[in-house]
């Protein structure tokens, strides 16, 4: 009975596979939105102000960072929690694939969130004259919360890695 329950629990990890597949659909939706913005931008590029152009480009960079985050979570999460990716030898393999455990994935996600938040905050600062001061303050506080959280997570991860290294010696 115990072996059956353990096998059932272990096999249940495959319930995550459709979730990672769903993230790929989210990546597709993000790509559609990205190119919608490109097609919206192109006819107006001559008449746009420099500030509006920078804001649009920052928005596109933001979407690109989110897309990269989705790919990282999809592939690393699948490899860490479901099954190793069995890629053909002739196929190009991402350098970080198979090397990112759940702890480093968590730190990469936190760093990506900080980068995305930074781009968003920069967009808001570029249009600061149209943003009320109290909202601007909240944007900064929220961003600093992301930065502090990422720093603390990274620090705790490095502390736990040092402790693991000490026990190996």
UniProtKB/TrEMBL annotation:
It is a multi-pass membrane protein. The chain crosses the membrane at residues 12-35, 55-75, 109-126, 138-156. Belongs to the UPF0114 family. It comes from the Bacteria. InterPro entries: UPF0114, UPF0114_bac. This is UPF0114 protein CQW29_15185. GO terms for cellular component: plasma membrane. The lineage of its organism: Bacteria, Pseudomonadati, Pseudomonadota, Gammaproteobacteria, Enterobacterales. It is found in: Cell membrane. It comes from Pantoea coffeiphila. Keywords: Cell membrane, Membrane, Transmembrane, Transmembrane helix.
